Amino acid sequence: MNYTLTLHSPETHQFEITCRVDAPDPDGQRFSLPVWIPGSYMVREFARHIVDIRAATVSGKAVSLTKTDKATWQAAPCAEPLILTYRVYAWDLSVRAAHFDRQHAFFNASSVFLYAHGQENQPCRIDLQPPEHAADWQVATSLPGDGAAPFGFGAYLAADYAELLDHPVEMGRFVHLEFDVQGVPHHLMVTGCADFDHARVRRDLARICRVQMDLFGKPKLDAPYYFLLTAVDSGYGGLEHKNASALLCKRADLPAVGAREQGEPDSGYVRFLGLASHEYFHRWNVKRIRPKALLAPDWQAENYTRLLWFFEGVTSYYDDLCLLRADLIDEASYLDLLAKTISQVQQTPGRHVQSLAESSFDAWIKYYRPDENTPNAVISYYTKGALTALCLDLALRRKGRNLDDFMRGLWRDADKGVEETEIFARVAKLGGSALGRWLQNAVEGTDELPLARQLAHFGVKLIWQPENPRPWLGARLKHEGNKTRISHITAAGPAEQAGLAAGDVLVALQGNEVTPQTLDALLARLVVGQDVECHYFRHGTLASTKLTPVAPPADTARLKAVSGAKAKERRQSWLGTPTAPKAGLVPREKS
Ligand SMILES: [Zn+2]
User: Fold this and answer.
1) DSSP count for the chain of H helices, then E strands
2) Residue 579 above 70 pLDDT?
């Protein structure tokens, strides 16, 4: 398979693509574009951005092309090599698709290169044509060159189509930082921001990578690794690949040159480091230790696994833990980050409704497609998965083992793919059958996790408190201009009982007008158990109801290191040697 990608017209945001098949199917060659991209479990219909697609023989004779479904084209039979020509509209500035303007071009192959049915196992050669509008652009990709100079335009080669999908490509002017970890070259390419502290970011990333390479040990991964980072005014995300990750962060999250390095790094920079740590951990956990269900994925449909809690949850547990192990944050900061995750889960009534296994299986239609009812019906396999991994790690530690041992065991046997029940069986083998049963129940059921008990054993006290001391209504509110609209109703809360619904616009409480300016003062006057009259618009019609505020739920966690030599010793056996003081940090979402 030979592809060319041309960057003619950045102002149209369109890539021009040709795809040549030397030995097309004699009965007529079929071509498709994947409907999803590995690592992001949602059907995204990338083919909707293909325009003006045509087919011809290599000698220039037109070949008819018939569209047979949303992502598939059927060419008429032809005996010569066949060439498809089409354009791809690339205006999605995320890590999952493609983007092209005068500043840069970025793509995942799943957005731009059709595959030829029956030829998915053929090597794929892509020829990246240099743009006419900018002579100084370079290329950043983990794909090996096939004649292209390092970081230059020209040809790159993938062993087959599945491999082609695993190498995002960035083209433009970027900051390029390099470092070695255990002798393996690592690259960070940053688009969209040049004036940050290069030396500090390079040093900190190198520390994270070293901690993780040490954790997994042998066999050592020796392919060069690429962090492809796009810095923007506002945005956040990451997507893992075998030898690369595509990252998106806020410019302000990168440390300024000359920023003070004493004490703890600020929360934005910690968020960026946590993202890089998360995607790098996937280098093992999901890209090489893989769910069996995703070993040979169907590119045209959802692919189901009940194991996303493991691949995303365990990765989420380790992403911040590795910042602590790399000495980039201290113990108190780590406990603050962990407390935020605990609070997020506790503030999600969906944890009583959906298990981690169900959340994993239904990611395609639930976690990735949130709506107003999501907090009541869905639990995140990232956050609750991370807390399950924490409880598992602590339980294993009480038996003289730990989650690192478990991950190394999986890594040693990584070729076969992980079966659905294999995790439980392996835990039983390492930590005893009772622990295996506990984990299966935790993953397949909705019981509360034994966080307080496990943390207490390791010298950390879990303290519950209300997020806000004010009486509670069980509704999340958002301002839209001068309107105050209900975005979510908490199941079984006062607002639900009063008949309010997501989408309602609050206009008055006790006859006093609700505006973004008055809302806080009105909420501050509420009294637990005392009815308030509430006027609201639903679909433009005025209505009223009686709301009865209740005491706020104690659903916000604080983690406190317990004093005393024994508590300290146990805590250190889990978290290592603590260092200097810290600052408040914020939680985050990641892919
Ligand atoms: Zn992830």
Assistant:
1) 17, 28
2) no
